[in-house]
Specification:
Blueprint (H helix, E strand, L loop, with lengths): L12 H6 L14 E7 L5 E7 L8 E3 L24 E2 L5 E7 L2 H10 L1 E6 L12 E9 L2 H6 L3 E9 L11 E7 L2 E6 L4 H12 L6 E5 L12 H14 L6 E4 L2 H7 L6 E10 L2 E14 L5 H10 L9 E10 L13 H19 L3 H6 L21 H12 L1 H8 L7 E13 L6 H6 L2 E6 L5 E4 L9 H13 L7 E2 L18 H19 L6 E6 L22 E13 L5 E11 L6 H20 L5 E2 L2 E2 L17 E6 L17 H17 L7 E2 L3 H8 L4
Parallel strand pairs: 1-12, 8-26, 10-11, 14-15, 18-19, 22-25
Antiparallel strand pairs: 1-5, 2-4, 2-6, 3-5, 7-15, 8-13, 9-10, 9-12, 13-14, 16-21, 17-18, 17-20, 21-22, 23-24
The structure holds ligand MTE and dioxothiomolybdenum(VI) ion (MOS).
């Protein structure tokens, strides 16, 4: 038996490590036209007049009047315009685009353009917003009765801030109109989302539009929505460019200031306790969606579905809304709404335990969901919940219990230590029946006459390694060498729509389709013939159908699980915190490549810890203040602590070789372990916001906030 998890050299390793792989900015074309956007300086205003300087020959302006199709990007409720028409909704909203052969001249012309606005009253505070893009409410059991019969009711509000995806490569897209067809390429997660956006904006026949993914320097959800906007703008510009290629690449500051981030949140938890156990939760979740609806609906849904964490809570009343503000639109980000509610519920459970005089891990363990239990939405945990064994694995790697006891003794002195632990899951794949009803994934395998096999799927490799893992699956099933399997960056002219590269679905869903296609190709293999095998998604039949109106049924086909302990030391003089170690046990089913999965877990943990500790982003009067990596600090090499990853394998029968979703899992729950550790180091403070920075530590030590 081949060990599918045995690491191999990644398909894209040599080209990326040597620098040979061209990114969008590396593509040289003599006739290229450089694009730049003129953006709103106001959070909300009416556009009165656009006064342009005299444009030199070869320089062109593009705005809403040039959009031949619909001036709308197909995301959320369609409220994002390709170019603003009457009103701007946030600082950075694109009013028009200028393009020309010399990028410096384009920049100068943009600064000379004078857009006349009439300023309108903006909505800047999500607490004050009365415009909900989306709101949902659901119940399980009888929360009202449980609260009426409760011994004690806890009430706490937890809030979280922005997080920037921090991909290495900023947003960028290139377009060219040639021979009646429009060719779009760029840094993207979801070629077919971009394709739909270009079709809508141009009104062209979809067969005349080709969208190709270029090497993508990270996405983390940030290239799920935004490339559709950039591509629509570039497509409109390309149609006006007389056949010359046009390229729009965001500067770093522009990217940080004006593109989607993780939704800031405020979550209120009321928890009923009866006989020392949680009998009900009443949860109110509010996400700041920013100026446009984007994917806030699905982000919010994932957030509220996971809001009672890994616990079996019999009575629930959950409300959630994603509200509009005139600030940067927020959107998809690794974890997709999960991190906000998972940190809230984990910290709330910790606080309740402390106030009941119980040991937090023991208190949490007493409430864990088990196989067969109902989920928050009255679906079912169909498969084993391996958390107890994973807790033991983390305890033995980290000596969590021992250190927890040790650090609970009063600490004086300059340096003080703490350790925390958190438990979480990530629903693998799309929420509800999206995979069956909306995505309807298709993959193909093409065998050439000389026996070369090529994978045809729309999924993109943005660092998470699917070029490699897809090829491993196909090679393994066909009994061919891994090196011989061909996979290219997807181009909608060549690959079927196997769905977007989101929700950690690629291996579990698309990988399984490729495995099945390989089985059939092997069965029907004919020497010397070109053959194409196609495979289509089928929904697992064990699922309880999910109803999006009532939030009843299986929200996810299965779950990936995680436990993580974080140990840290705070410096009471400077407030700084050194993370001493992070130890995680992760169940993503069978790892298709242990190096890749371990890398995903390590990177994801650090992204979660950055979110909790140092990644602080402010907006003043609607303007993002931290628009560079010198004032928005993310973990760098020297911040990496002792990091240990343990892979627990609970095989999922519907995934390839037992694999489930992996990519987003590690980011989701790490923040709670960090907060719990800080609380212990601070001698039992009860904290209720992230990021919790050095300044916050000083405040807490001085008995302030
Ligand atoms: N890992 C790297 N290196 N770069 C990325 O952009 N994106 C994450 C995760 N891991 C990302 C990453 C996100 S948000 C998702 S949804 C998954 O990868 C998507 O890939 P998968 O479906 O192959 O897990
Ligand atoms: Mo990931 S946030 O689903 O791209």
């Amino acid at each position: 038996m081949i060990d599918i998890g045995e690491p191999v050299i990644k398909k894209d390793h040599a080209d990326k490590m040597s620098g040979a792989e061209p990114y969008l900015a590396d593509l040289y074309r003599e006739d290229i036209l450089h694009c730049r956007l003129i953006r709103s300086p106001h959070p909300r205003a009416r556009v009165i007049e656009k006064r342009l300087p005299q444009l030199p020959e070869g320089y062109t302006a593009v705005d809403c009047h040039d959009v031949p199709g619909k001036n709308s990007v197909p995301l959320g409720n369609g409220d994002i315009p390709v170019f603003v028409e009457d009103t701007v909704e946030y600082i950075g909203d694109p009013v028009m685009l200028l393009m020309g052969p010399d990028a410096d001249v384009v920049e100068r012309l943009c600064s000379e353009a004078e857009i006349v606005y009439e300023q309108l009253e903006p909505l800047l505070d999500m607490q004050q917003s009365d415009i909900s893009f989306y709101s949902h409410e659901y119940t399980k059991g009888d929360a009202a009765a449980a609260f009426a019969g409760a011994d004690i009711v806890y009430d706490e509000v937890f809030s979280t801030g922005y997080q920037e995806q921090g991909y290495l490569e900023p947003q960028g897209m290139m377009g060219e109109y040639r021979g009646g067809r429009l060719y779009i390429q760029g840094s993207i997660q979801c070629p077919y989302y971009v394709h739909s956006a270009v079709v809508l904006a141009t009104g062209m026949d979809s067969a005349n539009i080709s969208v190709k993914q270029n090497a993508t320097g990270g996405g983390f959800g940030g290239k799920e929505e935004w490339p559709s906007i950039v591509a629509a703008q570039v497509a409109v510009a390309a149609l006006k460019a007389g056949g010359r290629p046009v390229r729009l690449i965001y500067g770093r500051r522009e990217d940080m200031e004006y593109t989607s981030k993780r939704h800031p949140s405020r979550c209120r938890y009321k928890v009923a306790i009866k006989d020392g156990r949680v009998s009900a939760m009443d949860i109110d979740v509010r996400y700041d969606a920013g100026a446009y609806s984007t994917l806030s609906n699905v982000v919010l849904m994932r957030g509220i579905i996971g809001s009672c964490g890994v616990y079996n809570i019999e009575n629930l009343h959950v409300r959630g809304c994603a509200v509009k503000t005139n600030t940067v639109p927020n959107g998809a980000f690794r974890g997709f709404g999960g991190p906000q509610t998972f940190i809230s519920v984990e910290v709330v459970m910790e606080h309740i335990a402390k106030q009941l005089g119980r040991e937090p891990l023991e208190f949490k363990s007493a409430h864990l969901a088990r196989q067969g239990d109902a989920t928050s939405t009255n679906g079912k945990y169909h498969f084993p919940v391996p958390l107890p064994a994973m807790i033991e694995a983390v305890d033995s790697m980290s000596s969590y219990r021992e250190k927890r006891r040790l650090y609970s003794a009063p600490q004086s002195g300059r340096y003080r230590k703490g350790i925390g632990i958190s438990l979480w899951f990530h629903g693998a794949g799309f929420t509800g029946s999206g995979e069956r009803d909306i995505i309807k994934a298709v993959v193909k395998l093409r065998k050439s006459a000389d026996g070369q096999v090529e994978i045809l799927a729309a999924n993109t490799d943005m660092g998470q390694g699917i070029k490699t893992t897809f090829c491993k699956i196909v090679a393994n099933e066909l009994g061919l060498p891994f090196e011989s399997i061909l996979i290219r960056n997807p181009d909608t002219d060549c690959v079927p729509d196997s769905g977007p590269t989101v929700a950690s679905r690629s291996i579990m869903v698309v990988g399984e389709l490729l495995r099945k296609a390989s089985v059939r190709l092997k069965e029907h293999w004919q020497e010397g013939m070109e053959q194409i095998v196609e495979e289509r998604y089928k929904h697992p039949d064990y699922l309880i159908p999910f109803d999006v109106n009532t939030f009843k049924g299986d929200a996810y086909p299965t779950y990936s699980w995680a436990v993580c302990a974080v140990e840290l030391r705070i410096d009471t003089l400077t407030g700084s915190h050194d993370i001493l170690g992070a130890w995680g046990s992760f169940d993503v089913g069978t790892p298709i490549d242990r190096h890749i999965v371990t890398g995903q877990m390590e990177g994801g943990l650090m992204q979660g810890l950055g979110y909790a500790s140092m990644e602080q982003m402010f907006a003043t009067n609607g303007r993002i203040r931290n628009n560079s990596y010198s004032d928005y600090i993310i973990p760098a090499a020297l911040d990496i602590p002792e990091l240990k990853v343990h892979l627990y394998v609970e095989e999922y029968p519907e995934g390839p070789y037992g694999a489930k979703g992996a990519g987003e899992l590690p980011t989701v729950g790490a923040p709670a372990a960090y907060i719990e550790a800080v609380e212990q180091a601070l001698g039992g403070a009860l904290l209720n916001h992230i990021p919790f920075t050095a300044e916050d530590t000083i405040d807490a030590l001085q008995g302030g906030k």
